[in-house]
Amino acid sequence: IKPYSRARRKFRGFVFPTQLSNFVCMAIRLFRCSYAAVDLEGLTKEQILALGHEAACDLGWEICRVAENGFVGYPRISGRSRDEQLGVLIDGETAEIRSHSIGRKLFSWGKNKKNVDRTIEKMEELWNSYSPAELDHKYLEIKANSHREGQGDF
What we know:
The chain is of the alpha+beta class. The chain has helices at residues 18-32, 45-58, 111-129, 132-149, and strands at 8-11, 14-17, 33-39, 61-67, 70-75, 84-91, 94-101, 152-153. The protein has four helices and eight strands; from the N terminus they run E-E-H-E-H-E-E-E-E-H-H-E. It is globular and about 40 Å long.
């Protein structure tokens, strides 16, 4: 019986034993990703999608993919890099907001946490300013626009 697995995985040009590889991947993911779950009681899945979409657009994110249970966006071309991704996944009355670095960035330097926090704050602000009927209307607009632009999975 061998004390550890000799299985090896290739990770960005280096070869690590399996256990070390899992640890390194997990550690890097922790530095590159931030997420939080927000409970939005009283809103439907469609209303939460509209609320999150509006919040992301107001914060300057370009939404590139929309589905029934969430969306993915990137920052617009500006002073910020395009090495970030914002995703919102909706499950019932809960929205999971995730921001993570993509590409060659190993650390986010707190940017991902700020993205998540700002998105949550904006969603709470918009929740107080929109009625459920307005959110339903916004959802129908998002659905129509995403079909027209070929980026929706409804």
